[in-house]
Amino acid sequence: MRGVVAALGNFDGVHLGHQEVLRRAVEEGRRRDMKVVAATFHPHPRTVLGAGNPPKLLTPVALRCEVLLRYGADEAWVIPFDLDLSRKSPEQFVRDVLVGEVGAEVVVVGANFRFGHRAAGDFQDLLRLMREAGGTAVAVQVRGADMERGISSTRIRALISEGEVTEAAGLLGRPYVLRGEVVVGDMRGRTIGFPTANVLPDPDAVIPARGVYAGFVRVGEEDYAACTNVGVAPTFQRAESRVEAYLLDFEGDLYGRAVDVSFVRRIREERRFSGIDELKGQVQKDVQEARLITDGLG
User: Parallel, antiparallel, or unpaired: how do β-strands 136-140 and 104-110 relate?
Assistant: First the structure.
């Protein structure tokens, strides 16, 4: 044993339920004077096991690790999920991974956590096996986890996919964020006085429903209020959907830079306009509303 408290879970989204698990791990770490490690899995188990279509991710693994550290973990540990890991018995998983690799003396999980081959192990198995190894385990009853409309990554993904980003933020404890590189787009925004950053998100990330959103774009350590369009720009009959953010008070070149686009509220659905003048007038209204929504939030 090396004196580590491990918060263990998939943690996609690091939503309010996950934060309760992490908060309890931090409390255990402080009480025992131990380092707190947030241990997550990558890729998503369904990607490896082929159990239906793998879900899009709320937090691709690099962003997830950053958020876990932000919420109190001393270290984020990514457990590679592959077929070999999926075939480990509960006993092997505790011995080889939790104790052998992570060095856990205390493991904190949600009360419904399952582990081992075919999810054969439950919390009582985890507690028994950790005690046999000289440690212990703690279960956290995550509020709302058993409710149909409670806190879950699955529900949050659905809300974002439907454009309900404000409700999703309430379950995440913060606005939803897409991280991506700014790439060259059509540059049509410049022609109507609203140059946008064409953000190429992680292909595994959940993309909000088509529409116009108020939110922010983080560039380095600075947050800028933004009006972001997600969609195909039907006025111009573009084929593919894009994420294009107009930063309200920014001047400069963003090409090639990674930025975080956050979604605070959906302003309207995407729609087709009769021409450039009507589009420009609507964008002016959208930007004004985005400013009103984000004022005082940044």
Answer: parallel
Could you tell me if 104 and 192 lie in one domain? no
Contact, 192 vs 287, CB < 8 A?
Answer: no
Q: Which tens digit of pLDDT belongs to each residue from 39-56?
A: 999 998 888 887 667 889
Chain centroid to Cα 40, Å, comes to 13
Across residues 188-201, what is the average pLDDT?
79
Domain termination residue (choose one: 87, 121, 140)? 140
pTM confidence score: 0.90
Asked if residue 59 belongs to a domain, the reply is: yes
Domain containing 70: what range? 4-140
Q: How many domains does the chain have?
A: 2
Asked, for residue 219, whether it belongs to a domain, the answer is yes
When pLDDT is averaged across residues 12-30 and rounded to a whole number, the result is 97
Dist CA 73 CA 38 (whole Å): 6
pLDDT in tens, 230-255: 987 655 455 467 999 999 989 888 99
- Please check whether residue 150 lies inside any domain of the structure: no
What is the distance between the alpha carbons of residues 228 and 289, in angstroms, rounded to a whole number? 12
SS (H, E, C) the chain: CCCEEEEECCCCCCCHHHHHHHHHHHHHHHHHCCEEEEEEEECCHHHHHCCCCCCCECCCHHHHHHHHHHCCCCEEEEEECCHHHHCCCHHHHHHHHHHHHHCEEEEEEECCCCECHHHCECHHHHHHHHHHCCCEEEEECCCCCCCCCCCCHHHHHHHHHCCCHHHHHHHHCCCEEEEEEEECCCCHHHHCCCCCEEEEECCCECCCCCEEEEEEEEECCEEEEEEEEEECCHHHCCCCCEEEEEECCCCCCCCCCEEEEEEEEEEECCCCCCCHHHHHHHHHHHHHHHHHHHCCCC
| Within-domain flag for 156 | no
